Amino acid sequence: MSGSDLEARLVACLPELRGKLKAGASLADLTWFRVGGPAEILCSPADEADLAYFMKNTPADIPVTVIGLGSNLLVRDGGIAGVVIRLGRGFGEIKVEPDHRLRAGAAVPDVKVARAAADAGIAGLSFYRGIPGGVGGALRMNGGAHGRETKEVVIEARAVDRQGNIHVLPVAELHYAYRHCGTPGDFIFTAALFQGEPGEPATILAEMDGIAAYREEVQPIKSRTGGSTFKNPPGNKAWQLIDAAGCRGLMVGDAKVSEMHCNFLINEGKATGADLEELGETVRARVKEMSGIELEWEIKRLGITR
Ligand SMILES: Cc1cc2nc3c(=O)[nH]c(=O)nc-3n(C[C@H](O)[C@H](O)[C@H](O)COP(=O)(O)OP(=O)(O)OC[C@H]3O[C@@H](n4cnc5c(N)ncnc54)[C@H](O)[C@@H]3O)c2cc1C
């Protein structure tokens, strides 16, 4: 089925959809790596009710994949079949609540969560200053940095399942582990409620500046990258294993293991999804040979190879 056939089928099933559908939308433009093929259909629902309507009325044989700000994604060159959901403006609300709490829609960038918290004198969320994703991605990945993780600060999340039911999940039902969330993979998060503690805006803002400066020094944050490629294995640092296996600076086509931080892969210009994935697999094989340890991908690889 071509993208336009699928679009026609969806339009027929979804007469009341308020959000947008686009056939053949570029995903390279929506990811940090800037690689990968198109989405057969890209859907931007208008709000949570519209997303629930979409999920309920879209036939079960059509695959649905959600992406956030694309900072942890490697999209393969054949693109993603079915529908890719990307949440936009209707999921961008951010609201300070009593008792040092903050509610944010899933499309709100983590950096904005940190800033809004600082402005409201809410401490404990400044680590989000360093994570370039959005709230939906942070909920799914249990994003963390500087000694804190999402699971320590989120108290409740809202999600829509593939049947269109809306769930309100307390943190215990998110079943968090290191860079892992145990809620079913078809749940699309729509919002989160964060708990902070009292703090001085000036102190929090200074802490955030420190985080930003540190990042600039140790990570290639201005490059086309996907952040940490592999999870740290228990008791080890992925970057040390990669370095010890001689992979710093290794290249496949225009895909390169960062010289600055060797758990980061970089698209130096014309890398393809296949180049980046092959480079990652080469690193995994060399680390396995050198140390016996199997690195696990932290970056999510989506879609089909060409
Ligand atoms: C320079 C750089 C530095 C980074 N540093 C860190 C760091 O310090 N700590 C850290 O944890 N990560 C880091 N990352 C990785 C990345 O920013 C995080 O994993 C982030 O939480 C991903 O959010 P995203 O919105 O970009 O999600 P995406 O990359 O778009 O998606 C990631 C996963 O989340 C899922 N997802 C996205 N939105 C939703 C939703 N609404 N509902 C359900 N699932 C969803 C996707 O399906 C996918 O499986 C870094 C990345 C870069 C490029």
Main beta sheet: strand number and arrangement?
Answer: 5 strands, antiparallel
| Anisotropy-based shape | globular
In DSSP terms, counting alpha (H) and pi (I) runs of 4 or more, how many helices?
8
User: What is the radius of gyration computed over CA atoms, rounded to a whole number of angstroms?
Assistant: 20 Å
Strand content: 25-35%
Bound ligands: flavin-adenine dinucleotide
Which structural category fits the helices and strands? alpha+beta
The run of helices and strands is HEEHEEEEEHEHEEHEEEEEEHEHEEEHE
Oligomer: single chain
**In order across it, which strands form the biggest sheet?**
6-7-15-11-12
Report, as a whole number of angstroms, the end-to-end distance. 16 Å
**Average pLDDT taken over every residue:** 97
Helix % is 25-40%
As residue ranges, the low-confidence spans are: none
Number of strands: 21
Give a written overview of the molecule:
With 306 residues, the chain is α+β, with helices and mostly antiparallel strands. Helices cover 28% and strands 28% of the residues. The protein has helices at residues 3-13, 48-57, 110-119, 135-141, 150-153, 201-218, 238-244, 273-291, and strands spanning 20-26, 38-44, 64-67, 73-75, 80-86, 94-97, 101-105, 122-123, 144-145, 148-149, 154-160, 166-170, 176-177, 180-181, 188-195, 197-198, 224-228, 251-252, 255-257, 264-267, 300-302. The chain has a five-stranded antiparallel sheet with strand order 6-7-15-11-12. Helix 3 (110-119) packs antiparallel against helix 6. The radius of gyration is 20 Å and the shape is globular. The model has no long low-confidence stretch (mean pLDDT 97). Flavin-adenine dinucleotide (FAD) binds at residues 32, 66-73, 87, 106, 130-134, 136-138, 140-141, 143-145, 188-189, 219, 221, 225-227, 300.
